[in-house]
Amino acid sequence: MHKVVDLLIAGHGLAGAVLAETARQRGLSVHVFDTKKPGNASTVAAGMVNPLVLRRFVPSWRADEMLPLATAFYEACDQHFSSGAWHPLPVFKIFPSPAEANLWERAMAKVESAPFMTNDDRSELVTSGISAPHGFGTIPNAAWLDVLTFLSVQREHLEAKDAFSYREVRPDDVEGAGAGVRVHGKEGRWLVHCTGPFSDVKGLVPVKGETLLVRIPGLEIAHILHRGVFLLPLGAGLFRVGSTFKWSDVWDGPSEEARTWLLARVEELVKRPVEMLGQEAGVRPASRDRRPLLGLVGPHEALFNGLGARGVLLAPWSAAHLLDHLFSGQPLDPEVDLRRFA
Length: 342
Ligand SMILES: Cc1cc2nc3c(=O)[nH]c(=O)nc-3n(C[C@H](O)[C@H](O)[C@H](O)COP(=O)(O)OP(=O)(O)OC[C@H]3O[C@@H](n4cnc5c(N)ncnc54)[C@H](O)[C@@H]3O)c2cc1C
Description:
seven-stranded mixed sheet, globular, alpha+beta, FAD/NAD(P)-binding domain, 30% strand
């Protein structure tokens, strides 16, 4: 019999994978197309979930709403896939100066920031031998999503249901079909473009990011450290260090400039030998106002993009919001509606 799925999805980065999984949870059927392109964001994402903007110590956009939703979403995925991709992991923010320590104290007194900040956990930093002469603060409800594991278990689940194709979706591949669209022989009520930085969308700003994989013998920490750069423990003495932000030459791949800069920052932070094992570069699909980009781009086509530097935190809310719009007719929140850049 001729089968029409509810959603065709182009792109299996965080946006496409979270959308497919949210659809599954709602009983909607999907077929995902993906082709891996150099520069894609999700395969190099560090995967941190940090609800606080570290330059100003204010909550990130709607963090009070996004964080519980993201936590519940990834916990449910872990349970469903038995994957172990979600790791609650506090961030220890080390203050480089007394001025920053004061800023932290002032932010802690504010109602909107206070839920994301504490001054506890002093002992752990002392035992790991990290120098923090001006002190540090803790972001207790931060977390790490092992994005590669999340993407691969989710893809395997789709493949097992014959709902994944390693195919590129080009404009010429999309044709109208009844009350929906057809792509590479598959029909769907909606096609959602989740093609990240490879999209031509008004308001989208590609931002290059680079990280290092390093080994630091003898350093044992059970939290993320941040001072200029973050240091994310992966186990077995391995750490991810990042990230850089660059708005020009974004497709150029790993650079010596970023490697030198990141290594200098991490050596300053840990004050012990650091062995570099790898370097990765990707392009964040950011938007001009740092909000997601959601909405319709055709009679049966929609777009899910603009996850920027906080894709892990924003994707579950964004996916749910887009599905509410497509399948229940709920209006799009103007803050994420892509028409704001029309
Ligand atoms: C260095 C770095 C560090 C980061 N660290 C973090 C972090 O710690 N925490 C966090 O929350 N976020 C982080 N991010 C941001 C995060 O990676 C992004 O927000 C998120 O991955 C964007 O996902 P996406 O699915 O929109 O795009 P992508 O991951 O780029 O996915 C798009 C997918 O679509 C595919 N594709 C493109 N065109 C087509 C087509 N025509 N047909 C089929 N497939 C197509 C691409 O190959 C890719 O697989 C980081 C990003 C970088 C670069």
